[in-house]
Amino acid sequence: MADAFEATIEEMAREIDRQVARLRETYAEYNAVERTSRSKDGMVSVTVGPNGRLRGIELNPRVYRSLSPSELAEAIMRQAEAAAGEVAEQSRTLMEPLMPDPELLDGVFGQGLDAFLPGPRKGSR
């Protein structure tokens, strides 16, 4: 009986080790996520990393002759938003396998908060 118990515990420990290793790999991949978006005319390039953090902006030297300051700002924002959207999608795809089954969450959280709280105490109002 003790051998079966120890074997079960050892298998559980191996499974936890596998899950932790997968989590570490995914976290490293997540931190490496990066996307660059370039304007159609090639004048503006914006690179965004995890969580939409701006990592770089490249401007073609001719951009100053082609765009007004407000047009340039708009072009930078447009490319940053495009790159951030791509990063968000890639991050979601990367993290999705680590998320719990939505049906499981519905079963737990669909009950409402009252299911997790004790009932009113006798004598309380």
UniProtKB/TrEMBL annotation:
SUPFAM superfamilies linked to this entry: YbaB-like
Keyword Coiled coil annotated: yes
Assigned keywords, A-Z: Coiled coil
Coiled coil: 2-33
Protein name: YbaB/EbfC family nucleoid-associated protein
Record lineage: Bacteria, Bacillati, Actinomycetota, Actinomycetes, Streptosporangiales
